[in-house]
Amino acid sequence: MVNDIKIEICIGSADDGLKAASYPIDRIELNSALELGGLTPTLETLKYLKERIDVPLCCMDRIRSGDFCYSETEYEVMFRDAKNMLEAGADGIVFGFLNEDRTVNKEKTKKMAELIHSYGKEAIFHKAFDEITDLDEAIQTLISFKIDRILTSGKAVYPEILKGCEEIRRLNDRYGDSIQLLPGGGVRIENIQDVLRISNSKQVHMTSKMTSAKGYPVLDEDQLEKMLEKISSM
Known about the structure:
Blueprint: E1 6-11, H1 14-20, E2 27-30, H2 43-50, E3 57-60, H3 72-87, E4 92-95, H4 106-118, E5 122-125, H5 135-144, E6 149-152, H6 165-175, E7 180-183, H7 192-199, E8 203-206, E9 209-211, E10 217-219, H8 221-232
Parallel strand pairs: 1-2, 1-8, 2-3, 3-4, 4-5, 5-6, 6-7
Antiparallel strand pairs: 9-10
Helix pairs in contact: 3-4, 6-7
């Protein structure tokens, strides 16, 4: 935590998890394939990091890129993945299930939340939330299922998160006592202070990545340090 702001870093590898844990952060969102928007990490990556760092690890549960309307086979695999990650020590599961009409898939979301909470861990609904037409109806549904947190850009199109921060603030003001709103999706050095101020949030989700010489996303420690400095100076 920096300046009373909880900081979540989104990473895509064990190497980046080890690096991120050396900074004053509060959570890691563990993924694979950040270049595809983040997919389910390998079980061994989770186990490796749990053995070496104390920062809570919330694991992405997303079987493929594309939309968030899944086949029954895909749902079955994702529930198995969630159970395996929880058994391996995941501190939360990050997921998002929608219907074709851009509403929350209530049956599958309730089932996933119940599975996660049966392990005493956090259920996090990811940015699938931003594809929903009626955010108030959706957030009320998620609250009824005791979802712990929603990652959102306030429906802003990546990377223009500032355009959605007023909506995040509105949701925070109306529902913040019942569910956490986590701003994320386009947070940068130049906008992080405005994201936090406008959204009225006490936490933030950052990827802080660059493209490596080998062509895949990695943690940019210089960028992360500068973002932490921006938070510290607020």
